[in-house]
Amino acid sequence: MESxxxxxxxxxxxxxxxxxxxTACQLDLLFFLLSxxxxxDAPNQEYQIHMNEVVAMTGRExxxxxxxxxxxxxxxxxxEVENDEAYVQLWMFQKVExxxxxxxxxxxxxxxxxxxxxxxxxxxxxxxxxxxxxxxSKYAKRIYQAGLAVERHRRDQDLRPRRI
Length: 164
Fold this sequence. Notes:
Pfam family, one: Rep3_N
Shape: globular
Oligomer: single chain
Largest sheet: 3 strands, antiparallel
Radius of gyration: 16 Å
Helix content: 40-55%
Number of domains: 1
Strand content: 15-25%
Distance between the termini: 48 Å
CATH architecture: Orthogonal Bundle
Structural class: alpha+beta
Number of helices: 7
CATH superfamily: Winged helix-like DNA-binding domain superfamily/Winged helix DNA-binding domain
Protein name: Replication initiation protein
Family: Belongs to the initiator RepB protein family.
Order of helices and strands: EHHEHHEEEEHEHH
């Protein structure tokens, strides 16, 4: 297993800047899930989030009822993504399952969200999972993501060849 300090979260900037409202708990679960994604994953891949790992990284502990409410709400919320061609409403999850007595969630992503998570050639944000999980406020977590997206955009602009 990778060092927890080395785990990265990567997402398309359409998700970073999309309109959605997640609690700090929901963002932690989302970030932890995104850190588990690998380019070679099968389309119907199920991901497991072990709560003892989340607790170890965040220092915050959630109970079954809190997790159930958090994942229930996550499943019903949509991401709104707008570009020049379309306005798209996406749901992140096909399935979220809390395995009773085992202390982990089993999650399957929706097919429509996968391009925003896997096909990341440009216009994406990347950050350390550990850093994002240490932030406790949902607003600070979103500002952290947005700031990193702006920083990457500026860096990419600086690397472009210039005409003289």
